[in-house]
Specification:
Layout lengths: L14 H43 L4 E10 L2 H4 L8 H5 L3 H12 L6 H8 L6 H11 L7 E7 L2 H7 L16 H12 L3 E5 L1 H5 L12 H32 L4 H13 L4 H13 L9 H25 L3 H9 L4 H29 L3 H5 L20 H9 L5 H31 L4
Antiparallel strand pairs: 1-2, 1-3
Helix pairs in contact: 1-18, 10-13, 10-15, 10-17, 12-13, 13-15, 14-15, 15-18, 17-18
Length: 435
């Protein structure tokens, strides 16, 4: 017989069990530490990336300008009576006006090399600044007019501290002589920094100080417009059919498996598909937002269909039963009841899909949107580029001035992505219904 009144220590108080519990706690602590370490590492990497981008890119929103006294020489320009149209004004040698004014300002520049270095202080856009002054007022001919001219990219980098005077002159993009001239201009208060509106209002350029993102931004907008116009109705219609009307058989199972697989396919595969079909078969215009939008629509469709099906599935069956009980047909039930109730979730998934399409580069490279485009596109069939592709092009440029342009364009792209994702979160919180 076993004495049931005997004091038997609980099993968990034995030495073996206590050792096992300690090992379990150590493993749990180790697991939590690894997870916390991974989180901290990710946050530090993100902070380093954002800090690096902003520290380099914020200066891209500023530009350096030089204030010079330009003598509007009648021997070069001619008389006001001779300038009867803008074509004659455009043919004037403004380069000579700038050269004469700089040589007068710095008489020690005698050799051709010195004059060449003098002219490298100002941007090639200075000609247009003088021309615009002359178009507005022809009475300035024969007068000395103070004008604020855009500085060259190397001068801009030097004034922002990205080129140091302590560098080896053989590797420095600006000479000692140019630094001496700039010191004199700065001492006279003729060097200023201003907001770089050119970066936001112009297209691409070979000169870093003249390069802008407007052409790429318009190209991205037109491309996303085509993507949305194609992917949204097809994706929603497909989701309604698969979720509400498609019979459950091997074919629908095969479609669902392929949809899930297509959502994980690398984006460059869709670029190859667009190259093979839209360009080689249908001979659509290369580097056009139409082709880019079609390609991105193919890439976005699987994700949009999956999110739309999830939103439709979240609508309670009682809504469908009540509509059918009131005499609505299956189509009326979907269009008048299920679809409106699921639309917030569908729109949220659509915006997230559009944000992903906005940041894609590989598919657009495959269909030729990597071309150097100066003009701002006016339609979906004109040659264009996109913001991610523009960033790729600038990052590959050897000029140092494009480095800050690249980071500044990344900042603009990040702002667009944050706004789109923030709008999606706001829509979900505002219109989402809990059943």
């Amino acid at each position: 017989m076993i004495d049931m009144n005997r004091d038997i220590p609980p099993v968990w108080t034995t030495k073996e069990m206590q050792a096992r519990v300690r090992r379990r706690y150590r493993k749990e602590w180790l697991f939590k530490s690894i997870g916390l370490g991974g989180l901290v590492t990710g946050l530090l990497a993100l902070a380093f990336l954002v800090t690096s981008i902003f520290s380099t890119g914020l200066s891209g929103f500023r530009e350096t300008a030089l204030k010079l006294d330009i003598y509007m020489d009648p021997e070069i320009i001619g008389s006001a009576a001779d300038l009867t149209n803008e074509e004659q004004i455009k043919d004037i040698d403004y380069h000579a006006l700038i050269r004469n004014s700089l040589r007068k300002k710095f008489p020690d520049a005698r050799s051709r090399r010195d004059v060449f270095n003098l002219m490298k202080l100002v941007s090639s856009a200075a000609d247009h600044t003088i021309m615009n002054h002359l178009i507005r007022d022809k009475t300035i001919i024969g007068k000395t007019v103070p004008m604020t001219l855009l500085a060259s990219s190397n001068v801009d980098m030097y004034m922002k501290g990205q080129i140091s005077r302590d560098q080896d002159p053989s590797t420095r993009k600006i000479s000692d002589r140019q630094i001496t001239w700039l010191d004199k201009l700065q001492a006279e208060g003729r060097i200023s920094s201003r907001f770089n509106w050119t970066f936001l209002t112009s297209g691409d350029s070979r000169e870093p100080e003249l390069a802008g993102i407007l052409g790429a931004a318009v190209g991205s907008f037109l491309t996303l417009l085509v993507t949305l116009a194609i992917a949204f109705p097809i994706g929603v219609a497909t989701a309604i059919y698969l979720e509400e009307f498609a019979p459950q058989n091997r074919w629908t199972d095969l479609i669902e498996i392929n949809l899930n697989n297509l959502a994980a396919v690398p984006s460059i595969i869709f670029g190859l598909l667009g190259l093979a079909i839209f360009l080689n078969v249908f001979n659509m215009p290369r580097s056009a937002p139409l082709v880019g939008g079609l390609t991105l629509a193919l890439m976005t469709l699987p994700t949009l269909i999956i999110t739309a099906r999830a939103a439709i599935r979240a609508v309670p069956p009682s809504i469908r039963d009540a509509a059918i009980g009131m005499g609505a047909s299956p189509i009326q039930t979907q269009l008048h009841h299920v679809l409106p109730l699921s639309m917030p979730g569908i729109l949220t998934g659509t915006i997230i899909g559009m944000a992903r399409a906005l940041g894609e580069t590989a598919p657009l490279l495959m269909i030729g949107m990597v071309a150097f485009i100066v003009d701002i596109p006016k339609g979906i069939t004109e040659a264009a580029t996109a913001l991610p592709v523009q960033i790729f092009l600038w990052a590959d440029s050897p000029e140092r001035g494009f480095m800050e342009k690249t980071s500044a364009a990344i900042i603009v792209l990040l702002v667009f992505l944050l706004l789109m994702n923030g709008f999606a979160i706001w829509m979900r919180q505002k219109f989402e219904r809990r059943w």
